[in-house]
Amino acid sequence: MAKIRNLTFHDIPKLKKMISMISDAQNGEIAFGYRSFIPFPVNFINNLLPLNLRKLTESFVATENGQIKGMISLKPQRGNPHSWNICNLFLGENSYDTGRQLVGYATAKYGAMGANTFTVRIDEDLDELMELFSKGCGFRMCSSEHLWKMDEVKLVKSTLDKGFFRPFKNSDAQEAANLHNDCIFPHFRYSLARKQQEFYDVILPGLSATSSFKYIFEDNGKIKGYFKLQTEDNFNFVLEIDLVQGYDDCFSDIINFAIGQILMRKKEFNFYVLNKKYQISGAKFEDYLSKNGFSGLKNRIVMVKDYYKKIQEEQRSQKPAIVFTDINRNPAF
Length: 333
Prior knowledge:
alpha+beta, Aminopeptidase, 2 domains, 12-stranded mixed beta sheet
């Protein structure tokens, strides 16, 4: 069994070499940098913090006989310390058991601290990785997110004027959260719902690796939609949309407005739309994109593991508890 410990600075060159070998074998590119490493003494302080104060990506490596067999990185959902995302999992050849051990270690560690939902997004063609998370680590396939690219970036036909749109304000956060959650199919809602705090603007946006531009779609003084543009390189922009049913024929208007906002800043760029299939309007949006100059690119399967569902005080059962012994247990970018 491999030994698991925190990622150290001296592990990074070894990991880069291992990952480059994997990348060459798969004829692809896998990015890995120093963001996954937390330097001393920040890592020491971070390890002393309670779950609700942890904001950084945390990484662990599995070693056996002095050799690195794999690495996992997790980060908390901004604004919700009880929800964690697995953002990296690198494994050497024939390391299925190591992967299961790494995912199990990470979910158990943060689950014991109070995290109740773990999420990972996996490219749909990585069958072995999905099997590792589902059969080996107890994750379930929830739904998927499909990335679409606009073949030729241009303004599309719009029926609404700009008066329906305005910049997002922090005072909109609760309504935006409610809207987002109402857009999700009920059976996915517990695992994928978001809280008000997750919609607040970043205090120091200039220090974030991702730039976001958020907007509200409003009709007769009521919020009917929330959408966000994100970019990491100021060239590739991704649009995400939450829209009330009954207004889901306004996709073209929102896309048109979003492109217009980018054109005020840049003349050349790539424009993408992320369709979240766990949303009620996901199928309708998918149909719109396929017929209006977009090409489907990456499709990622969303997998989740829920530790427990918090029961409200007034819902607690008054029946006596029953204790069993000798219970058999079945053994995560």
